[in-house]
Amino acid sequence: MAPTTVTAQDPAVKSDDSLEARIPPTCPANVAEILRRAWAHDLAALKPLLSVPGRASVQEPTTGETPLHAAVRACAPENRSNSNKTTTSARTSEDDDYSGEKKARDVVYELFMSGAIWNDVDSNNETPGCLADRLGLRDLYQLCLEAGVRAELLFGLLEGYEELESEDGDEIMEEGEEEEKEKEKEGGGAGAEDGQNDGDKAKKQEDGDVEAEPEDIILDSDPDRAFVPPQPAGGRNVKSDEYLRSELTYDKSKLVDSSQNGVMMAWETSIMRASVEALLPGLAVGRRILNIGFGMGIIDGMFAETRPSKHHIIEAHPAVLEYVDSPDCKFGKEWEASGPTEGAYKVHAGKWQEVVPKLLEQGEMYDAIYFDTFGEDYSQLRMFFTEYVPGLLDDGGVFGFFNGLGADRKICYDVYTKVVEMHLSDAGMDVEWRELDVDMSGLQKEGKGEWQGVRRRYWTLDKYRLPTCTFMG
């Protein structure tokens, strides 16, 4: 089924990558200085400008250019050519290219270490990684990829963090925090430093006791970062509870919700077929199968063809469950009754978070498990394979999922490939990736081809990485 966090990207970005176009004369001087230093790969001059939090991720107000974009874009062939015109005849163009890219790597690395945001988009809807990929700059792309992985792993840790509380309900503070909070209350609140409020600072500046701060200091809240990135046609993301309350519409090519979000589409069929072949090598007969997320029933129809000894399906949406019981679907009551033993074939109604613990209590075990839900973020997939798959998957079993993580753009897809691989390893699982070609002939344009009648594209890539997960050892 479709992933829910998407940002549609034009597959054929046409961009003016010149310095004049990306850092126009209207750019605020303080922002322009940082961007131009990054563009020139002048690390010595750039470092002092990054001393204040937020400076590494400033954005040009109209083009959305960040220091990362500038450092990468300066390596575009036309920009290197312009730079080479000023070099001495004793140096070759190849020497200049090598020197320029090495300096660019140093600057990009420094920006990331100073807090630059890896997935900021510019007015072309490109992240720095997208830009590096378009320009064929593999080393810079790799730096963006590594930064994205670090950021997503850290985000995952912070998302799971719960603030400790004392027995009486008060938050536990580190030594000195309580004193600092009292200073804030007495000295002007969160904006105060060392117990001084703004009035204290101003008076001391007038008296000459402290040096006045430069007017061009850029902080996280600086209005020059108020660039509005291009918005996807689909608007806000769908959450699980909203999706479960929505009405669904079936036709032969797609399943959409009441907002025309694509829940599942027929173009995924080839991916489903390859997934079944990976989960059931040789399309083995008589295996025990669990599928989470019925949707259009594409993969369950393929599973059924293998005549499994057990075939359990978990589905939460009332409209899908109604469809399952209709004459148009072959997975209703008659199918359940056709199982080799009582309860061998069953559609479990409800959220998997509620159903799966019951299956564990009943001692159910499976040879193949597939996970493909809608309206849930990555944290739910991770929770499933970390907390539940180890108890459900029998020895020698195989686990798979629809890999639509970050499928709106290549850099995000690559980042999540690395992240999920690390998390699977933490859960005691190996993953093998098989890269499949995706026929993009009907998937290129928003609202056309396969996307006609669908609110937004949730897939923009010509390659699909199919995961096959097994227990280590």
Short description:
The chain is α/β, with parallel strands linked by helices and 473 residues long. It has 18 helices and 10 strands.
Which characteristics define this entry?
5-stranded parallel sheet; 18 helices; nucleus; methyltransferase; alpha/beta; elongated; transferase; 3-stranded antiparallel sheet; 13% strand; Serine Threonine Protein Phosphatase 5, Tetratricopeptide repeat; Rossmann fold; 473 residues; single chain; SAM-dependent_MTases_sf; cytoplasm; disordered N terminus
Could you tell me the CATH topology label of the largest domain: Rossmann fold
Strand content: 5-15%
Rg calculated over all Cα atoms: 27 Å
> What is the CATH superfamily label of the largest domain?
Vaccinia Virus protein VP39
Average pLDDT rating: 84
Describe this structure in words.
This protein has 473 residues and is of the alpha/beta class. It has two domains: 1-159 and 182-228, Ankyrin repeat-containing domain (Serine Threonine Protein Phosphatase 5, Tetratricopeptide repeat), CATH 1.25.40; 240-471, Rossmann fold (3-Layer(aba) Sandwich). Helices cover 39% and strands 13% of the residues. The strands form three sheets. A five-stranded parallel sheet has the order 6-5-4-7-8, sandwiched between helices. Strands 1-2-3 form a three-stranded antiparallel sheet, with no helix packed on it. Strands 9-10 form a two-stranded antiparallel ribbon. The chain is elongated and about 75 Å long. It starts with 18 loop residues before the first helix and ends with a strand. Its EC number is 2.1.1.-.
